[in-house]
Amino acid sequence: MRFTCILFFIFILGIDVIQAEAQTGIVSPALTTVLPKLSKHDTAPSNAAADELGLLAYMYQAEKDQKPLPLRLYQPSNLPPEKVPLVVWLHGSGGGGNDNSRNLNLNFARLLIGPDGQKNGQCLLAFPQYQDGYNWWYQYHTRLGFQTAHAAIHTMQFIDDLCSNHPAVDPTRVYLIGFSQGSLAQSSWISAYANRFACSVQIGGSHDHRFLTRSTAVPIWTIYSTDDRVAMIYDSTPKAVRNINQVNPALLRKTRYEDAGHVGTLTRALKIPDLIEWMWKHRNTKAPQRLKQHWDFAFHGSWDKETTH
Prior knowledge:
Shape: globular
Structural class: alpha/beta
Radius of gyration: 21 Å
């Protein structure tokens, strides 16, 4: 009888352990183990608010001759058995540097990973930072010809690395979102890396989207204000809206304010109730394909050539 009771107790304990594992998920791997090219950014100035959210400071260096890419990265301490999305936020022109702080938007982060986050932190969230002298354009034109934007390339390599090597990242659910230059530059990212992203949220201006085709276009939500000089420079955002509509109107969601200004557009956008849900419903199951192309980003979008490699 005593032996039977012991067996029964072990059986019940086993059920409790299985239930606990199902509830808490698997323990997240150490990021620097999963990504050997990632290292802790120990010299980054402290940021208590980011640390409290679990947004830790790293440096990523895909190749030896690259300037390391600063970024803040969050992963939940326990991951569910199913794979989770990767969300990438691109900062505006005021967020550049190497402090791993100006690149953050903690109000956006709290929507996902804060105590009241809509997704209870069930995602990976990255805030890359381009260093001084760089920008987010994938490729841009100068008097010397077309130049590669190293920070954009480097961030793409980081995204590839995560999608290939992190056991919990769902490569069909990589969400791109950003503000100001981090919004305007997204058009170049989508064109240069076709089908890498499941959707694009562009806050505070959209750039020329004439490159889009039915095979490479993704759902785009553009959020802007008509009194915003950045969003309306050279009529860029209305042109982008027309471009998307010409390819596939079903892919476009537009939120237009009349009096929000530049920063005010961001403030209002982060209060849109279904912002996160809209991103979460999208997947891109097509194979990602990098395109080698020249596109002049001087706000008139002239093509030079397009080939694949």
